[in-house]
Design brief:
Blueprint (H helix, E strand, L loop, with lengths): L9 E3 H8 L3 H9 L6 E3 L2 E5 H22 L1
Antiparallel strand pairs: 1-3, 2-3
Helix pairs in contact: 1-2
Length: 71
């Protein structure tokens, strides 16, 4: 009997951009800056759900830091 693992949800740049209201370019910049970890799957780069969650937390902290410095 063969056991199948349920894969963690994964998202392309375009799916992330549409889901979170950011541009494809912003996703690319965040990957380059090390804020979002992606994995090469065939011809596509994808982000797994756990990496997306970490990215969103990093973006939230980045926003809070900016607000704190201003005020």
């Amino acid at each position: 009997r063969r056991m199948t693992l349920s894969p963690e949800p994964r998202y392309t740049y375009a799916e992330l951009a549409a889901a979170y209201g950011v541009s494809y370019s912003q996703i690319s910049r965040d990957v380059s800056a090390g804020l979002l970890k992606v994995t090469q799957l065939g011809r596509n780069k994808v982000a797994f759900q756990s990496d997306v969650t970490a990215w969103l937390e990093a973006k939230r902290q980045q926003t809070e830091t900016r607000r704190t410095k201003r005020g």
